[in-house]
From TrEMBL:
Record-annotated membrane-spanning stretches: none
Biological source species: Saccharococcus caldoxylosilyticus
Origin: domain of life: Bacteria
EC identifiers of the protein: 3.4.13.19
Top-tier EC class: hydrolase
SUPFAM superfamilies in the record: Metallo-dependent hydrolases
Protein name: Microsomal dipeptidase
Matches recorded under PROSITE patterns: RENAL_DIPEPTIDASE_2
Length: 305
């Protein structure tokens, strides 16, 4: 079984309304591919493209949620909406859990009411920024490198109260440390290690150790240029995994592929269907229990509810 903490299929389905979750040729994540890969839980991110005007972003978030319920959940009985361990436990053998997440708080502007609305609609994890700044915090590519704003702290406190994940992927370093001080359920849904690939989106050893100390999760992603400066292979994914484990994170690491949010792919990991290739490599180096933890159990165990 696999728990994948991040994909951008909703963005693609929103941008091209002709695509089908059944057989969309440009989709990395489709129902047949999820079944073939034995994915048990797939997180679907609500990511608002930068081209969307500020005043339209919340509406677009609602449109993506509508696509999620109409085109992913509504049309396919095998896809079940999940928000908790209990929901996942209730899945039948042939059913796949679909979880809603938010990538970047641009959609809520400066409104806690909008955030609460998204949580009530079923969002289980909230990434505070994309790569730039918003009313909550600065992102990883924002040169200013500021931390959480006053409103950003209110957002984190709201997520604590609602028992939802606070996702630190894409944050500036200052904002990361601000979040770690107050977040009860921090994760990095799709981030790799700075040690093996010094990119602003990756986590330094001190950040990884801090997430582990807070019993958070790190979802390693399959973005080639977050893995290596060379041609990326599955071996590179394993290098980042082993490094997190060496820092004490064997029970705090999983995968957040970023499928459908990338154009170039890792050799051997072209779509979610290719998780089988990763599983085969993991089984060469780790015990059955460790592989099961990396692929599913670690993220499952860290669900706040």
């Amino acid at each position: 079984m696999i728990f994948d903490a991040h994909c951008d299929a909703l963005m693609k389905l929103w941008m091209d309304r002709s695509l089908s979750f059944q057989d969309g040729k440009s989709l990395h994540v489709t129902l047949p591919a999820l079944k073939e890969a034995k994915v048990k839980v797939q997180c679907f991110a609500i990511y608002i493209p930068e081209t969307v005007s500020e005043e339209a972003r919340f509406t677009v978030a609602l449109e993506m949620i509508d696509i999620f319920f109409e085109q992913v959940i509504g049309r396919f009985p095998a896809m079940k909406f999940v928000r908790s361990k209990r929901d996942i436990d209730a899945l039948e053998e042939n059913e796949i859990g679909a979880m809603l997440t938010l990538e970047g708080c641009d959609a809520i502007g400066t409104s806690l009411v909008k955030l609460k609305t998204l949580l009530r609609l079923g969002v289980s994890s909230v990434g505070l920024t994309w790569n730039w700044s918003n009313a909550v915090a600065d992102g990883a590519w924002e040169r200013r490198g500021a931390g959480l704003t006053k409103f950003g702290k209110q957002v984190v406190e709201q997520l604590n109260d609602a028992k939802r994940w606070v996702d630190v992927s894409h944050l500036s370093e200052k904002a990361f440390w601000d979040v770690l001080e107050i977040a009860q359920f921090p994760i990095a849904s799709h981030s790799n290690t700075y040690r093996f690939c010094p990119h602003p989106r990756n986590l330094r050893d001190e950040q990884i150790k801090a997430l582990i100390a807070k019993d958070g999760m790190i979802g390693l992603n399959f973005v080639p240029y977050f893995l290596t400066k060379e041609k990326a292979s599955i071996t590179d994914v394993l290098r980042h995994l082993e490094h997190v484990c060496s820092l004490g994170g064997a029970r705090n690491v999983g995968f957040g592929s970023d499928f459908d949010g990338i154009e170039e792919t890792v050799s051997g990991l072209d779509t979610v269907r290719d998780y089988a290739n990763l599983v085969n490599e993991l089984q060469k180096h780790y015990s059955e229990e460790e592989v099961e933890r990396f692929l599913f159990r670690n993220f499952y165990d860290h669900l706040p509810q």
